[in-house]
Design a protein that fits this description.
heterodimer; A: about 300 residues; alpha/beta; Rossmann fold; 2 domains; seven-stranded mixed sheet; 9 helices; B: about 375 residues; alpha+beta; Dna Ligase, domain 1; D-amino Acid Aminotransferase, Chain A, domain 1; 3 domains; four-stranded antiparallel sheet; 18 strands; about 25% strand; elongated
Chain lengths: ~300, ~375
């Protein structure tokens, strides 16, 4: 099985009528993803290449049975778009929008937690989620992926996840699902949520975790791995040589007051039994080795 | 965006937080005039975005015009931790009975706001034992209530005389933090005066750049602290750039890959001149812009272009590089690594144009090694 996104998922795109939304929405559809609706209150009743546009997510859900929302709207309206999606009743929200103010992220996170505890938010500022051979929501290039498992990927960074997909595919190793949790300070979904899902997924036999500087999500993931994960984990952390106090591209990628260094994260993951790659191109080899150790290659 | 002390105090004042009367200037004559206006004794404080100002001689007490003139002259000549002092803040000196610490920031782990309050202020909060810091976690949906603030102040064991004043300031500081879109709002020290008043003697405020669209007033805060010329250029061209001090210029697509590229250069014994995320597109225009910014950096001896082709195919990127090279006269050779979608076609295009100014390498590690060797003149 894939995690969270399958061939049966029905996707509504908030932002489908925009240039980016149309490009990625149609691209996801061309891959085979069931993109069933778009949302734009001013263009309800029209369509984008045959995909009907509704005024609200709730309308789209009622008419099409959509259970996933792909949010690709400007930052100033993205927080409200997430809340609209949750209220509309989808179970999974994938928000690729970057530059949502941190306080809005914190407010949205806690609002979902209180009012919509069963709704999962991926992102904001994430690359999306890809279950190769089944469905794709977001930016992830499917060209470098291979279906059938047995490896699950979870990453804060998009490009490093793509790199991992590529390295695995080059070794002939398939993937179950590649999950982007995003590079912002308050991600809706944590490494731990993804690790738990991969541990429970029968088709996933090994896990790749890609982190970066800033925050303590990787350290928390390491503790969770130690206590709960029996499948092999290969990890990579970006930003070993990043200077303190500087944001490295992602809003959440910053070493502040000595906290959130790559070194501390790598140490925690190594101590938890994960194999930590020195650079992203080592990921393929380390996964191959891990699969051999459990008799799968 | 980090605010200088005087900007932070101006920001605090907007939210009703009591600060000392004072003004900012860049010259000695004005400093004396401000001192005469606010009344002696005054404190002359260097305005730089770094800690340890006191130790570096950047904060001085002055009792008369001669002392203001003397200290202002000296402080305006200082460079503190690499920050040139261009402005000084002159404020009425305060009588201090006790010094406290107060701040709000985001706890990324708990995904709640974190308030910290300590009866030990005026020192770096990192040096205060954890048990001496009263912490409160605030759900943004609920906010900070007056009752919760009062209990928090009691937990911090401040002087009872400070309780009412501290509760009032903390509620205002929370308002400033939330509605002012700060990612850090810190008062250190928060002081209690002998006559029982509580007020902010310093201000440390970081603003969330992502919220700038709803704060047109922030315009006043930009452009005061001179930023890296390279970073200014990159910003104009809409590139994600961080200036570093090495010799290998870096262009990568995606923040994660760019970070990883800086890392691998240092792993093989070199040092990156910058972090540059060219983004998803990596078209000829983008590439030319990125190369122009990197070219401006005189320290750059080699440029490592590290591209992972996803939706943007490597052959498009390769053509972009060739076109950009025709448009920008480069000071240093390019070392290119292409992987991902259509990598072979892309490599072929680069190899057709290969020279000692354009070098194609098969993977990230070898490309990094080559770039570092060239940068070192080997």
């Amino acid at each position: 099985m894939a995690v969270w996104l399958t061939e049966n998922s029905k996707v509504v795109v908030q932002g489908l009528t925009g240039k980016q939304g149309q490009f990625y929405g149609l691209r996801n559809k061309a891959y085979g993803t069931k993109v069933v609706a778009g949302v734009n209150p001013k263009k309800a009743g029209t369509d984008v290449e045959g995909i009907p546009i509704f005024a609200t997510v709730a309308d789209a859900v009622k008419a099409t049975g959509a259970d996933v929302s792909f949010i690709i709207v400007p930052a100033a309206i993205a927080a409200d778009a997430i809340l609209e999606a949750a209220e509309g009743g989808v179970g999974l929200i994938v928000c690729v929008t970057e530059h949502i103010p941190a306080h809005d992220q914190a407010r949205v996170y806690n609002t979902l937690k209180h009012q919509y505890p069963n709704t999962r938010l991926l992102g904001p500022n994430c690359a999306g989620i890809l279950s190769p051979g089944r469905a794709n929501v977001g930016f992830t290039p499917t060209e470098v992926s291979k279906g059938g498992g047995p490896v699950g990927i979870v990453s804060r960074s998009g490009t490093l996840a793509y790199q991992a997909l590529y390295e695995l595919t080059a070794e002939g190793i398939g993937q179950t699902t590649c999950i982007g949790i995003g590079g912002d300070p308050v991600p809706g979904t944590s490494f731990i949520d993804a690790l738990k899902a991969f541990q429970e997924d029968d088709e996933t036999q090994a896990i790749v975790l890609i982190g970066e500087i800033g925050g303590s999500a990787e350290e928390e993931a390491a503790e969770y791995i130690k206590a709960n994960i029996t499948k092999p984990v290969v990890a990579y952390i970006g930003g070993v040589s990043a200077p303190p106090g500087k944001k490295m591209g992602h809003a959440g990628a910053i070493v502040s007051r000595g906290k959130g260094t790559a070194q501390a994260k790598m140490k925690a993951l190594t101590e938890a039994g994960a194999k930590v790659a020195n650079n992203p191109t080592e990921i393929g080899g380390l996964v191959l080795q891990a699969l051999k150790e459990i008799g799968l290659r | 965006m980090d605010l200088l002390e005087y900007q932070g105090k101006q920001y605090f004042a907007k939210f009703g937080i009591p600060v000392s009367a004072g003004e900012v200037t860049d010259n000695v004559d004005d400093a004396v005039a401000i001192a005469e206006k606010v009344g002696y004794p005054v404190v002359v404080k260097a305005q730089v975005l770094t800690g340890g100002r006191g130790k570096a001689g950047g904060v001085k007490l002055a009792n008369n015009a001669d002392e203001v003139r003397f200290h202002a002259t000296n402080i305006l000549k200082l460079t503190i931790n690499g920050h040139v002092v261009r402005k000084i803040w002159i404020e009425r000196a305060s009588d201090i009975a006790e010094e406290y610490y107060a701040s709000f920031t985001l706890d990324r782990s708990k995904k709640l706001h974190l308030g910290m309050l300590s009866a030990q202020g005026g020192v770096e909060i990192e040096s205060v034992p954890d048990e001496d810091i009263a912490k409160i976690w605030i759900d943004p949906v609920v906010g900070l209530t007056a009752d919760a603030a009062r209990q928090w102040v009691l937990d911090a064991k401040l002087n009872p005389k400070a309780t009412d004043g501290a509760v009032d300031i903390l509620l205002k500081l929370y308002d400033c933090y939330i509605n002012g879109d700060a990612t850090l709002a810190e008062i250190n020290p928060l002081i209690l005066t002998p006559d029982g008043k509580v007020h902010a003697l310093d201000a440390k405020v970081s603003l969330d750049d992502a919220a700038a669209h709803r704060h047109p007033e922030w315009e006043n805060f930009t452009g005061l602290e001179p930023i890296d010329e390279r970073e200014r250029m990159a910003k104009e061209k809409d590139l994600q750039y961080v200036g570093l001090d090495g010799t290998v210029g870096i262009i990568a697509n995606g923040a994660g890959l760019a970070m990883s590229t800086v890392d691998i250069v240092s792993q093989v014994g070199g040092k990156a001149a910058n972090f540059l995320d060219i983004g998803g597109g990596a078209s000829a225009d983008h590439m030319a812009n990125a190369l122009t910014v990197i070219n401006h950096d005189e320290n750059v001896k080699a440029v490592f272009i590290n591209i992972f082709g996803g939706i943007t195919r490597c052959d498009e990127v390769a053509r972009g590089i060739i076109q950009a090279m025709e448009r920008v006269q480069l000071r240093a050779p390019l070392i290119v690594r292409l992987d991902g979608t259509n990598a072979e076609e892309g490599r072929k295009i680069i190899e057709e144009h290969a020279s000692d100014r354009l070098i194609m390498k098969p993977n990230m590690l070898v490309a990094a090694q080559t770039a570092v060797e060239i940068a070192k003149g080997k």
